[in-house]
Amino acid sequence: MNNPSIHASNAVASDVADTPEMVWLDALEAEGSGDRVGALEAAKRVVEMDPKHTDGWMGVARWSLPPESKGRQQMPDLAQAAKSIAALRKVVALDPEPFDPWKLGGVLLVDHLGMMEQGLDWWQQRREFAPYEVAPIIEQIGILVRMGLYDECANLLEQLYSEGMEATTSDQLTQMEAVNKMVSRAAKMEEDEIFKPQNPKHPRWRIIENMKKRKPISPTFFLITFVAPIVFILGTFAMTLLGGTTWGFLVVFVFILACFMVITRLASGMLHRMNRHALDLDRAIDYETTSGKICIPEEIRYSKLYNAMVANRVPALNERLELIVEGGDKMPIRWKPELPEFKELNTVEDSEEWWSDSEMEPLDD
Predict the structure, then answer these.
(1) Residue 316 in contact with residue 111, Cβ under 8 Å?
(2) Residues of each domain in the chain carrying CATH 1.25.40.10
(3) Is the dihedral of CA 245, 246, 249, 255 positive or negative?
(4) pTM
(5) pLDDT tens, residue by residue, 320-332
(6) 16-67+74-99 in CATH: which number?
(7) How far apart are CA 231 and CA 41, in angstroms?
């Protein structure tokens, strides 16, 4: 029996080494050794060889983002966030079942790119695949609250508490209760008038302009200057009446703790009302980043208040916001966000039908 030649053996070894799975193993090995650049390049080779390699696309999405530094996740810039979300679109199109790609994509679209409309659509697509999950509805409600669309919030809250929704863990029930309170608090704060940034004559713009030199009050400062003195006075009074014994000291300690919790909760609404000018400007920034058009007046932009609100945003969103401002396209007074149809969904039998071909295109930014 003739043995294969050296050239034939090398050819077979080369073919094995060039398979997508072997290159993917190289990517994992590079990541394990701390070489994220090498891992990313290998992952890109994988998806070039096999465009339907889900793990390869997920690798591109993860390794396009900056690594952790000193135990903290570094924030991506605009290019990194755009490349990652483009890869994540491929991931969920090929395999919509795992939740982690959806979660990462939602964070990138809303928090890092400021694309509220696309964020709503992103979670709607998840809902079409998994109609009984509560997490997509909670995420959608959070976006709608930021945009001041409370009628749509009420509709989704009804669906959130409807029969058949999968809310089996204590964390999910806690999140449902938290989002319900968030909607109630925000709607109550704006019960007199809902701020619509696209209207340059809205009366809230004049209030924002008058307070543009005042930064928002931080929760810590409010706690020290308002809540703590009240609790201290009540605690001192209680200690005078009940102190002196071990049991009295324990009762006073519980009383002070209860006062702190109750007063903090009651005062949270006051803090929101005091900071409403900042929350309104924050919404205007969201409207600009989701529409790609400007609505903030020149006399307010780059003011002390504006700079404080932008400083709270992440680098990718600030990059995109500056590009929008440089473009200078004015937001029409009748502009409205494009919303998905928020209706109760039935189980989808064929997961390929819920994803449109347009969603496979890379993000243009």
Answers:
(1) no
(2) 16-67+74-99
(3) negative
(4) 0.82
(5) 999 999 999 999 9
(6) 1.25.40.10
(7) 58
